[in-house]
Amino acid sequence: MKIFSASQLQKADKISIDNQGITSEELMERAATRAFNEIENILDENKTVKLFCGIGNNGGDGLVIARLLKNSGHKAQVYAVNYSDKRSNDFLANNQKLEKMGLKPIVLKAEEDFPKISAEDIVIDAIFGIGLNRGIKGWPAKLVHHINHSGAFTIAIDMPSGLFSDQVPSENDAVIKADLCLTFQGPKLVFFLPQTMDYVNEFKVIDIGLDKQYLESLDSSYEITGRLEAAAIYKPRKKNTHKGNFGHTLIVGGSYGKIGSVILTAKTALKSGAGLCTLYIPKCGYIPAQTAIPEVMVLTDEGEEKLSEIEFDLEPDVICFGMGTGKDLVTKEAFGRLLERTKKPMLVDADGLNILSENKELLESVPKNSVLTPHPKELQRLIGEWKDDFDKVNKVKSFVKKYNLIIVLKGAYTFVFSGEKVFINISGNSGMATAGSGDVLSGVITALLSQGYSPENAARFGVYLHGKAGDLASADIGAEGMISGDIANYMGRAFKTLI
Ligand SMILES: NC(=O)C1=CN([C@@H]2O[C@H](COP(=O)(O)OP(=O)(O)OC[C@H]3O[C@@H](n4cnc5c(N)ncnc54)[C@H](OP(=O)(O)O)[C@@H]3O)[C@@H](O)[C@H]2O)[C@@H](O)CC1
Ligand SMILES: Nc1ncnc2c1ncn2[C@@H]1O[C@H](COP(=O)(O)OP(=O)(O)O)[C@@H](O)[C@H]1O
Ligand SMILES: [K+]
């Protein structure tokens, strides 16, 4: 699923109206009816719905929903948030229809007009949608705070009012915090950025039937990775195969006290379908590694407690480097030599990334199309500071183009940057905020590379599977109870959800 900008959606609205031979009022009726159906599904009859409608088309949607609520016997109170005198035509038409039914919106013009909102009420926020073009000021801003402080379950129509689709709100801007956002045609980029995601606790996409052909023709860098997209990448195993068909992964990492990290990565690689897996670790890790995973082969470095040589006599299909290595000079130099010798795309994580950040000249030697998996702090060391999330996204886009790499920017929503594309993953949960879950992610992506997935697909699919395994683990044993090894243990079940 592509993510469109507000201006693309506004244009798609117009083109769909023309192509389908309908009026904009009819499109509004269709969009709002579908939103109403979702609302009705979750509505408890005893609840009072308080609808706050602006005077543009977002407000028009709110008025349609009010009419449908009233028609189906719900308790609804409608407020027109009179932030200006420029009512849109479709607002006016729907206002008339509502008045004919005897439901006249109460016009709010100042703070004194605000109604009481109880925590038991349901609030529908239809004040501003994608037409927002400046921060909300004055008494409407106070209304937003009034709604946010009420404790009422708040459903935003299309966008939480006050949230821009293409910029981060400033500290003083008032923005609705939506428990649920019913968003038209596709999610908006701001739903996924760390600085703005908290305004949308949950979202549901309402297909309002815009022209499919036109939407498909639109360019967008941003795409969602959900179950459908993951299933399209998945290559089921053939019957007539042997372990050599699924690749040999070499996982290089670890140091004294941090051998667990590479063990987790290797275990996950095997649990994600890698045919063979070799661990290359400092000597101190030999017995723990052999004991923890009998299925893995272990090679040891000359270094007792840290990597100092990285010399091996085998030809792996993919190399993964960096978890738990530390940044010692001997390790850095050995990593530099490894980079010189490696031609196939590899995966670099954790201290591997920190070494690259401190020695930027090494970036030139990272094989093209390699996958780098930073969390935000590691990213900052790699690319420097950013002003806000939009600036960050642009900086990462330039970085991946400059070095021909793929960046997996980890977070509650993980972003995969590849060429011009940015893939946003929607699986996963807060139970994954636990030590070692990044090591597990490296294991999945490495295993997919070894099985012949392209680096872009390995990154995108690996991130999805990692989140899905986390979701299955959380459903079974709870977010607090799960540890990163559980994510590895649920990997097979995550694959199975795609069959
Ligand atoms: N047929 C369609 O197109 C369909 C559209 N649909 C719905 O329409 C929504 C978009 O509607 P919209 O374009 O009327 O804009 P909306 O968000 O209601 O804002 C209204 C006006 O407010 C103004 N304004 C902006 N910021 C402001 C501020 N801070 N403080 C004060 N005023 C401010 C600004 O006007 P300005 O004052 O700048 O001239 C703006 O135009 C969309 O989200 C979806 O819900 C669906 O029904 C599907 C069919
Ligand atoms: N709240 C969350 N929701 C979804 N995924 C999360 C959340 N918090 C962390 N994760 C995932 O867990 C992993 C954490 O990686 P990282 O920070 O490198 O951990 P570690 O260094 O402990 O291995 C990432 O893949 C990240 O996307
Ligand atoms: K809204």
Automatic annotation (TrEMBL):
The keyword ATP-binding applies. Residues 9-216 form the YjeF N-terminal domain. Its cofactor is Mg(2+); K(+). It catalyses: (6R)-NADHX = (6S)-NADHX; (6S)-NADHX + ADP = AMP + phosphate + NADH + H(+); (6R)-NADPHX = (6S)-NADPHX; (6S)-NADPHX + ADP = AMP + phosphate + NADPH + H(+). InterPro entries: Carbohydrate_kinase_pred_CS, CARKD, Nnr, Ribokinase-like, YjeF_N_dom, YjeF_N_dom_sf. It holds the Pfam family Carb_kinase. AMP binds at K410, G411, A412, Y413, T414, G438. (6S)-NADPHX binds at residues 57-61, 129-135, 158, 324, 375, 439. Binds 1 potassium ion per subunit. Transmembrane segments: none annotated. Keywords: ATP-binding, Isomerase, Lyase, Metal-binding, Multifunctional enzyme, NAD, NADP, Nucleotide-binding, Potassium. Belongs to the NnrD/CARKD family. Bifunctional enzyme that catalyzes the epimerization of the S- and R-forms of NAD(P)HX and the dehydration of the S-form of NAD(P)HX at the expense of ADP, which is converted to AMP. This allows the repair of both epimers of NAD(P)HX, a damaged form of NAD(P)H that is a result of enzymatic or heat-dependent hydration. Homotetramer. HAMAP family: NADHX_dehydratase, NADHX_epimerase. This is Bifunctional NAD(P)H-hydrate repair enzyme.
